[in-house]
Specification:
The protein has nine helices and twelve strands. About 35% of the residues lie in helices and about 25% in strands. By secondary structure, the protein is an alpha/beta fold. The longest helix has 25 residues.
Length: about 300
């Protein structure tokens, strides 16, 4: 078998992004170039590595097996490049992926504690949805994924080997409303009152969950604005332009004019915050960052 590093990077990026088109965009290639690399990789492997599905592309069991080796190979190539260019240092780099609200409520405290306990560890971060971060973790593009899960809080994906998961904390899902709007002065709202409410949601695709709308809301939600940025969403709420779901953990970072309400008439929606990594013996840096994240709750 003869695998080029370019082909292995394509494999990793397709596994992370879930499509050939997105992989091409992130790698700076044309889609046809990515498709050619994927086909060449399958010919060399003598196996089907990619499963084309209506919601995107997933790796087959053979593809996942090759991905595990690809991570090791590409990490070794990167290490060789650092050694040859003289950019290797004593510090350890740990790449962390976080769900969209974790940056505001967990990251600053975690980084402060990490700087005090393990100053030799350098952290880079990126945001994403839980499904996207799991793909990135499996692909080896990040070392730790900070995720959310709904009850009964089973493992976040069905792939093997299972991820190593540490629980950070549980947080209740609430609804953010304008402090001067129709729900002003209240501490709760019945779910039936939210059916016709204008919602501010996070953009989603077929493979990603719809965030920002109350789960299980009867009927089709009336989405009036979409935004990934939390500041944008909360400022729209403060201005009375819609409502959105907010983890109770964010109560300390709300802008003026936003109130959080419990939802009556349905069971509480509890989200568990998790820190996930690949199985096996972690590096000292990954352990230090995981400790900092779990102690920041």
């Amino acid at each position: 078998m003869d695998f080029s590093s370019t082909a292995l990077r394509v494999l990793r990026q397709v596994a992370e992004s879930g499509s050939f088109t997105a992989a091409a965009s992130r790698l700076g290639y044309t889609q046809s170039a990515v498709s050619r690399q994927a086909a060449a990789l399958e010919r060399s492997a003598g196996a089907v590595l990619f499963e084309r599905r209506p919601d995107g592309v997933r790796l087959t069991s053979a593809g996942l097996t090759l991905l595990r080796h690809a991570r090791t190979i590409l990490d070794s190539v990167s290490a060789a490049e650092r050694d040859l260019t003289g950019s290797a240092s004593q510090s350890e780099l740990v790449r962390v992926g976080l769900f969209l609200s974790a940056g505001a409520v967990i990251l600053p405290t975690a980084l402060t504690r990490l700087a005090e306990a393990s100053p030799q560890v350098t952290v880079t971060t990126r945001e994403g949805t839980t499904p996207g971060l799991i793909r990135a973790l499996r692909a080896g593009s990040i070392d730790i994924a900070v995720l959310t899960s709904r009850p009964p809080h089973r493992p976040s994906d069905g792939e093997s080997p299972r991820l190593h998961i540490d629980t950070v904390e549980d947080t209740e899902l609430l609804v953010g409303v304008s402090a001067t709007g129709v729900f002003a002065g209240r501490t709760s709202v019945h779910v039936d009152e939210l059916v016709d409410a204008p919602w501010i949601a996070t953009p989603s695709s077929n493979s990603e969950p719809l965030l920002g709308v109350w789960p299980g809301l009867p009927g089709r939600p009336r989405i009036v604005h979409t935004a990934r940025d939390w500041l944008t969403k909360l400022e729209l709420v403060a201005g009375g332009f819609g409502v959105t779901t907010v983890p109770s953990r964010m109560s300390t970072v709300l802008p003026p004019g936003v109130s959080l309400l419990h939802v009556d008439g349905v069971p509480s929606e509890v989200r568990r915050i998790l820190a996930a990594r690949l199985p096996g013996r972690p590096s000292p840096g990954i352990l230090a960052v995981t400790r900092a994240i779990t102690s920041a709750a």
